[in-house]
Amino acid sequence: MDKMELIGLNTCDILIELKPPKLDMLGISIKNELIIFREESYSRVKNKYLKDQLEAPASALVWAVDTIENGFGKKPNEGGLPRNVLHAETTIESEKLYLRRTMNCGAPNQQGYTLKNFSRFSYIDSDDYQEIQLPDYLLFDEGLLDKLKHLATTSKP
User: Fold this and answer.
1) Residue 114 CB neighbours (<10 A)
2) Would you say 61 and 151 are in contact if contact means Cβ atoms under 8 Å apart?
3) Rg of the Cα trace of the chain?
4) Partners of 117 in the beta sheet?
5) Exposed, middle or buried: residue 124 (CB in 10 Å: 0-12, 13-18, 19+)?
6) DSSP string over the chain
7) Where are the domains of the chain?
8) What is d(CA 142, CA 7) in angstroms, rounded to the nearest whole number?
9) CA-CA distance, 108 to 49, in Å (whole number)?
10) Cα→Cα distances 124→9, 40, 52, 53, 56, Å
11) DSSP collapsed to 3 states, 14-53
12) CA 8 from centroid of its chain's CA atoms
């Protein structure tokens, strides 16, 4: 797998200004058969913007949406994951992906999901893997999950 360059936020299919305490931007796009989550956040500690992105095969978007809706979103007797399971993992096009239910997703006591690609290293810290946090309010209250579903269906070859 080739390493991409950071994409520009202005080229993204979906662009979201994140709520406080994460005052910054999230862009989502499908380019070169990859789903890309591009994040830019201001670090008060470093006094600069930090730019990072998660890249995964575009078909991983279908898996992530399905896992959120049908794995985590349903009870075990409805076909969902067992109650004590807080993560799901898969390998798509030789890339190892991990989706975890997160209790402090971007802020204390803010629930959501963390999507991680163990096959690609972070742009910020080369000792860490690429990941993106998707809080529940963004997915469900602000409609990001529906936008991701639409992006997954419109980008199929």
Assistant:
1) 18
2) yes
3) 15
4) 97, 130
5) middle
6) -PPPPPPPGGG-SEEEEPPTTS-SEEEEEEETTEEEEEEEEEETTTTEEEEEEEEEETHHHHHHHHIIIIIISS-GGGT---TT--EEEEEETTEEEEEEEESSSSSTT--EEEEEEEEEE-SS-TTSEEEEEEEHIIIIIS-HHHHHHHHHHHT--
7) 9-154
8) 24
9) 21
10) 17, 11, 6, 9, 17
11) EEEECCCCCCCEEEEEEECCEEEEEEEEEECCCCEEEEEE
12) 17
Closest by alpha carbon to 64, among 133, 3, 137, 141?
A: 133
State both tokens at 102: 């997160």
Each residue's pLDDT tens digit, 110-150:
999 999 999 999 999 889 999 999 999 999 999 999 999 99
Fold of 9-154: Secreted effector protein pipB2 fold (3.30.2450)
Is the predicted pLDDT of residue 156 greater than 70, yes or no? no
pLDDT in tens, 9-25: 889 999 988 755 556 88
10 Å Cβ neighbour count for 3?
Answer: 8
Quote the tokens at residue 126: 């080369």
Q: Are 41 and 26 in contact (CB under 8 A)?
A: no
